[in-house]
Amino acid sequence: MHVLFVGMVTTAPFQWFGAAPTREPLALHRRGWDACAICGGAERLGAVVPIQDLRELDAEGVAAILDAVRAHGVVVVKGQNLTRTQQVALTDALGETLVLPKSFEGQDPEPYHPAIQRVTNFWANGTWKGSTTKFGAYWHQDGQFWQAPHHHILSILHAQAMPPAGGETGFADLRAARATLSAPLLERAANASIRASVRDIADFAKGDEADLRAFPDANHPLLDTHVLDNGPLLYVGSPHMEVVGLETPEAGQALLTMLLAHATSPAFTYFHSWDVGDMLIWDNTQTLHHSFPYNNNGSARRELYRTQARLRLPESLAKEELEGGQGTRMIYWQSTLNMKFGF
Questions:
Q1: Which helix (H) or strand (E) holds 181?
Q2: pLDDT per residue over 104-145, tens digit each?
Q3: Could you tell me which of 129, 220, 239, 322 has the fewest CB atoms within 10 Å of its CB?
Q4: Residues 129, 123 contacting (CB under 8 angstroms)
Q5: DSSP of 272-319, one letter per residue?
């Protein structure tokens, strides 16, 4: 499939905050200040990748999506209608498809598709889950419980039914948050890291003990760089993380609270208002996300399907991640696009 980068581009220039731009500019998905129920002022999140049919995606299209996600953090492909099998195939094309333990997935597996997570207010058998059902209703990154270099996770979320209003998904820009962090907070965060445990993640609270034991704790520095282009970013995980490296656990939690408040301020957030057919793809290392409420009284479905792909890193970059180095990541990424896809 040939991918054309066309369409209206934002009229005002915006900051990339350390991310190398895409080769061709992309429009940003914005409804306007008078139309958004929840509004944010993020400058680069939420680009529209103009692909007509993801079922016909070729290597050039895969490269275009991956580069757009790297540069913009969050992208949307509009007007899609993929089956569960087709979504898994798309996920396979973007990286290594992940399958989490069933007990981590809200006890609502998608029949015959273990890689699919059902993000919906109705059970697979068609019955309503109730008004209190929610998943991911706090600021967090997916995959923070994976040890490096396995935490470089893309999330792919496909909307098949939406309520008439509400139910937005919010995103916060961790590159922008790092670029604008004050000198005292930079100095404070430079000595600290998060320790992520699956036992501390709210959505995994009902995980089976055997599944929980399979995931050892993972440590990530609060001040990190992107594995593909070496751009600086914050890595904060979620409010449930333990922060190590400071004087006391309480001091670490206080720092994490400040960093989360900074990263999720209006200047760095984008709230995606869904249309049926949207396919949202985001990079968890450089964004936080958060589901927002809607009138869940059982009269309307909010039906989305999520898959996750781990970025396929060359052996040299994976080894570098394990050793804590930075190297020449952007040079590698650009040369790969040039050699393989003629970008």
A1: none
A2: 876 788 889 999 999 999 998 999 999 888 878 899 999 999
A3: 322
A4: yes
A5: EPP-TT-EEEEETTSEEEEE-----SSSS--EEEEEEEE----HHHHH
